[in-house]
Design brief:
Layout (H helix, E strand, L loop, with lengths): L29 H32 L2 H35 L9 H13 L3 H21 L2 H8 L16 H34 L16 H28 L13 H31 L3 H30 L3 H19 L6 E4 L15 H5 L10 H8 L5 E2 L5 E7 L2 E9 L1 E2 L11 H7 L3 E2 L1 E9 L5 E6 L4 E2 L7 E2 L8 E4 L9 E5 L7 E4 L15 H11 L3 H4 L8 E4 L3 H8 L4 E2 L4 E5 L2 E12 L8 E2 H5 L2 H5 L10 E2 L1 E11 L5 E5 L5 H9 L5 E2 L5 H4 L6 H14 L4 H6 L4 E2 L17 E5 L8 E10 L10 E6 L16 E5 L9 H10 L1 H10 L4 E5 L3 E3 L6 E10 L7 E9 L2 E5 L2 H8 L37 H5 L13 H24 L3 H25 L3
Parallel strand pairs: 1-27, 21-22
Antiparallel strand pairs: 2-5, 3-4, 4-7, 6-10, 7-8, 8-9, 11-14, 12-13, 15-17, 16-17, 17-20, 18-19, 20-21, 23-25, 24-25, 25-26, 26-27, 28-30, 29-30, 30-31, 31-32
Helix pairs in contact: 1-2, 1-14, 2-4, 2-6, 5-6, 6-7, 7-8, 8-9, 27-28
């Protein structure tokens, strides 16, 4: 059987050319397809490495609802924003194109447009789809950023207080108004862009002409209707915007105060209402144009609207301000200033400040501190900003441990007595490891955690001036008892660690060094079978995701990543709380506490708003920036936001061992927290579940106090007439010890003190005030303190917690401010001479925090003075204490001695370091070595007596004795620093004793040579 050749019937000859774009499709290269598929897979996996690992992190922590609520809200808003904007523009362009005239009038303008149409036509379909989609994409992204605004609107809570202008509940301003304004603004942008798109399309296709009319309409009927309806919608939206403006005036910022002023109430608000009505009228005019076909009426309306905006919205309020308010401004504005004062005090929780006049004494009489024994005994001598190097040198143990550069002050019960404590956590520091021995195994699986806390008394030091630790060592020993010492989560934790090992495997995680252990170290393994601290990486998929997330292939291939492994990351307490509570503003200082056998990080969270009617606006960054935030890496100012409402609504804890986060609803009356509790259901724990141990470590947060003290500088004035003049405004003084950061505010200090009128001393946070103005005298005008101790009753804070007490000094006060007192200290000859001597021999003097206390009927200044080596190993050790009351200054090796100097030899009580003087060496002469303080003069005969002891002063004239004393002081300083470098504290104490004797001799010689 023969088969016909199919080609035989085809006509012979050359094949005709294929039409352009036609013919058989070219085969796609399989390699290209494979590459594209692989590229998509890689992109998807990389995306999952960021997306799914977040889901695992939140799920492990028990806050998955937070993530899904935020992402879900963002997704819905993005979709709505995208669809509304894209659909509006697409619809506008489509309607304009489909209603284009078939035969456009022929003129020069149209001929030019024909060329553009010919160029655009091949891409028209793409442009009509892609253009709206691109604009919609940007609109969707912008809309998704407003997820919190929308959630607050949808879940708004009544405040129970009405605004003084309209009588509307404040919840409308805090929650609903921002959401409504967002929608109005978005709709306005959509209408404008859709209108522009339709206008351009009509113009391009002849529905709208700009040139001479030649007796023909400039717009087709279709173009007129579409543009008129669009303009009418825009006018209605503008009318709505004007109407909302009258409410937003109540949160506007004026020249002297925030909120609606006389002019706003009597001119601006009525003008907004009138302009809203005009806009509605103009919208009706555009509807009339769409029906009847004339542009003259809406054009007239637009003109009226523009004139009205200028005359009614601008000129009229200016005339009222100029001719009605300014001539009688103080009287006219008084009612509105009072509204501002009342709202500000309510918004910042300052309504219940206890204010009293305090006529501070300046005469230091013997026994003056007898009634302030508790305060005096608790005066803190350890400056938590300065003693971190001492903690590091004395308790670091190994170079891969570290302490924060600024330590924390807390209260602990020791021996049945509540004591101020400086406390620090010993965290792991990978930078301290030997660089030659660092590798992935050591960084990620061995050195995974820190170990233990270190605590020292705040009001006393050792006899060498070092911190007097009551909890120290590794393993920790002291008064805290048994607690879980391992610190897996902290402020200096590694980026990630992998913990856990199979059962029966020797733990490879380094715990602490020990001479009794094999290889000199005790090791451990995190019990992942019992405790969940991070997402599991027990399968290939999770290993792959985390390998990509952290850019580490070792996670995928290491034998130490097993079926029992968990990965710990995002370990900073602030970061963890911020992620699970994105609505909170977090305090810039986090502090550790040992609570119920665990180390926890205490984090204060604030709810804020900038929509509280009439309340003063305050920059959080400006209010919380001080000398401490400028120099410390662990204490930060708040974010640069401006608010006019703030509450410490949440007390959060982060467990240092397993990283668990607990959010306690602290301020249950806060409407903002109530609203967020609806948004993120079941994420808050009632404050009633706070244990008594945890309650005893809750303290009043510093940043809230900083914001409140800033506002109180003005709003302690509650009389509107006095407030208007600003004659009694105060400010926080600059920190006199700031050094290179001079010109920044002095931070507040935690102290145990008894304010005038208080029944007993309490743990407090304090600050001072001086007059405003660059030329004002540096004298104290006020003193403010807040009860910072929440008590120890489970679930029930003390009634006095958060009570702010303000002392107002007389307006003719002569009490020196901190900077003036710092100058007084430096200019006192005996003080400056001894400080100069202490700075010789390679040592440097550090002036610690300058504390102010309202005791003895006046104000007492206390400042610790530390000495450390200028270079090399630096261990700040307390060597002297400066004290001042009025014009009396004391300077001694202990606070107790310095107080006695100031108060005529007897302060009436004892300081915490009473009896802690450095023991002077035996001079062999049996005489009195004299008083080394600034308040007394040593006996020159005693110090000049012949002595076989080389540390005693030699005989001779005063100049030679002074020179010899300085030389001996310099040698003693050098010996002391060498002893410190060798950790020989016995030798250091002996050197300090010689230094003390030499200083006494130098002062005695100075006194003799000056005739004193």
């Amino acid at each position: 059987m023969a088969f016909a050749n199919p080609s035989a019937s085809r006509p012979q000859g050359p094949r005709p050319p294929r039409p352009a774009g036609g013919g058989a499709r070219r085969r796609r290269n399989p390699l290209v397809i494979t590459a594209l598929v692989l590229l998509v897979i890689v992109f998807a996996v990389v995306l999952m490495a960021q997306f799914w690992t977040e889901v695992m992190w939140f799920d492990q922590l028990g806050f998955a609802t937070v993530l899904w609520t935020e992402w879900g809200t963002r997704a819905v808003l993005f979709a709505l924003g995208f669809l509304v904007m894209a659909a509006a523009i697409f619809t506008s362009v489509t309607i304009a194109y489909r209603s284009r005239p078939i035969y456009a009038p022929s003129n020069r303008e149209q001929v030019s447009l024909d060329q553009y149409r010919e160029a655009i036509e091949p891409l028209r379909k793409v442009v009509v789809v892609v253009g709206p989609a691109v604009v919609g994409l940007f609109a969707g992204v912008a809309a998704s950023q407003q997820w919190s605004t929308v959630q607050l609107w949808l879940n708004s809570t009544p405040v129970g207080t009405k605004d003084p202008q309209y009588g509307i509940d404040l919840g409308f301003y805090l929650f609903q108004l921002p959401g409504i304004r967002f929608v109005v603004s978005y709709v306005m942008a959509t209408v404008i862009l859709a209108g522009i798109a339709g206008l351009v399309t009509h113009y391009l296709y002849g529905g709208l002409r700009i040139g001479p009319s030649n007796g023909t309409p400039r717009t087709t009927k279709a173009a007129r209707v579409q543009l008129s309806v669009t303009a009418a919608i825009l006018m209605l939206v503008i009318a709505g915007n004007y109407w909302l403006d009258q409410y937003s005036v109540l949160t506007s910022q004026g020249d002297r105060f925030e909120g609606a002023s006389y002019t706003d109430v009597n001119a601006v608000i009525p003008s907004k209402q009138i302009l809203a009505a005009i806009a509605v009228l103009v919208a009706l005019m555009f509807i009339f144009t769409a029906v009847r076909g004339t542009w003259r009426i809406p054009a007239l309306g637009i003109g009226v609207m523009v004139v009205g905006a200028v005359a009614i919205g601008g000129i009229y309020p200016a005339v009222v301000q100029r001719f009605q308010v300014n001539p009688n401004q103080q009287e006219s504005e008084a009612p509105y200033i009072q509204r501002n004062i009342d709202a500000t005090l309510a918004a910042y929780n300052l309504e219940d400040v206890e204010t009293q006049s305090y006529d501070a004494k300046t005469d230091a009489t013997p026994g003056a501190l007898r009634e302030d024994a508790d305060t005096t005994a608790s005066i803190r001598l350890l400056d938590p900003q300065e003693v971190s190097p001492s903690f590091r040198q004395l308790e670091q143990i190994r170079g891969f441990y570290s302490f924060a550069d600024t330590l924390s002050v807390d209260r602990y019960e020791i021996g049945g007595e509540s004591r101020d404590t400086v406390i620090a956590v010993r965290e792991i520091d990978l930078d301290g490891l030997d660089a030659n021995r660092r590798n992935w195994n050591s960084d990620a699986t061995i050195y995974t955690h820190g170990y233990g806390v270190v605590a020292a008394y705040g009001n006393v030091t050792s006899r060498t001036g070092a911190p007097d630790f009551w909890e120290a060592g590794i393993p920790s020993t002291g008064e805290l008892g048994d607690y879980e010492p391992r610190i897996y989560f902290g402020q200096n934790s590694p980026d990630y660690s992998i913990v856990g090992a199979p059962e029966g495997t020797d733990g490879w995680e380094f715990d602490y060094p020990s001479d009794d252990a094999e290889n000199g170290a005790v090791t451990t393994s995190f019990p992942t079978d019992k405790v969940s601290a991070g997402p599991k990486i027990d399968n290939l998929w999770n290993k792959l995701l985390y390998s990509i997330k952290f850019g580490s292939e070792q996670i995928l291939f290491s034998d130490r990543v097993t079926s029992e492994s968990q990965i710990l990351y995002d370990r900073d307490p602030v970061e963890r709380v911020q992620k699970v509570a994105p609505y909170l503003t977090l305090d810039g200082r986090v502090y550790p506490a040992v609570v119920d056998g665990r180390v926890v990080w205490m984090v204060d969270g604030y709810t804020t708003s900038d929509q509280y009617p009439y309340a003063a606006r305050q920059s959080l960054e400006d209010a919380t920036t001080d000398s401490l935030t400028q120099t410390s890496s662990t204490v930060q100012a708040l974010e640069p936001r401006t608010v006019n409402y703030i509450r410490n609504s949440v007390k959060a804890t982060v467990d240092a061992y397993d990283g668990s986060v607990t959010l306690y609803a602290w301020d249950t009356e806060d409407p903002v927290l109530k609203t967020w509790a609806k948004v993120f259901d079941n994420t808050l724990t009632p404050a009633s579940e706070i244990s008594s141990d945890l309650m005893s470590h809750i303290r009043y947060p510093e940043d809230l106090f900083k914001v409140q003290r800033t506002l109180l500088g003005q709003y302690h004035v509650t009389d509107p007439n006095t407030f208007f003049t600003g004659s009694d405004f105060w400010r926080t003084p600059n920190d006199p010890t700031a050094g290179e950061q001079a010109g920044v505010a002095q931070p507040p200090y935690y102290l145990t003190l008894q304010m005038p009128g208080q029944d007993e001393a309490s743990f407090s946070l304090m600050s001072t005030y001086i007059p405003t103005g660059s030329s004002a005298r540096d004298v104290l005008t006020g003193y403010v303190a807040v009860d910072a101790e929440a008590g120890s009753e489970a679930g029930n804070p003390a009634d006095t917690y958060g009570q702010i007490r303000l002392l107002e000094l007389p307006r003719d006060s002569t009490i020196p401010g901190p900077n003036q007192m710092n100058n007084n200290f430096s200019s006192t000859p005996a003080v400056s001479n001894e400080l100069n001597i202490l700075e010789r021999g390679g040592s440097s003097v550090i002036r610690g925090n300058l504390l102010t206390l309202p005791v003895g009927g006046g104000l007492l200044y206390v400042q610790p003075v530390y000495v450390q080596a200028s270079s090399g190993t630096q261990v700040p050790l307390l060597q002297r204490v400066l004290v001042a009351f009025g014009d009396q200054i004391g300077f001694a090796s202990t606070l107790d001695e310095a107080l006695d100097q100031v108060f005529g030899g007897d302060s009436g009580t004892q300081a915490g370091d009473a009896g802690n003087e450095i023991v002077d060496p035996d001079t062999g002469d049996g005489g009195d070595t004299g008083d080394s303080s600034a308040g007394g003069t040593p006996d020159p005969d005693a110090t000049a007596a012949p002595s076989p002891d080389p540390t005693a002063a030699p005989s001779g004239d005063a100049t030679s004795r002074r020179t010899d004393a300085l030389n001996r002081a310099e040698q003693a300083l050098t010996d002391g620093q060498e002893a410190l470098a060798n950790n020989d504290f016995a030798a250091y104490g002996e050197a300090q004793a010689r230094l003390q004797q030499a200083l006494e001799d130098a002062i005695a010689a100075d006194s003799e040579s000056s005739g004193g």
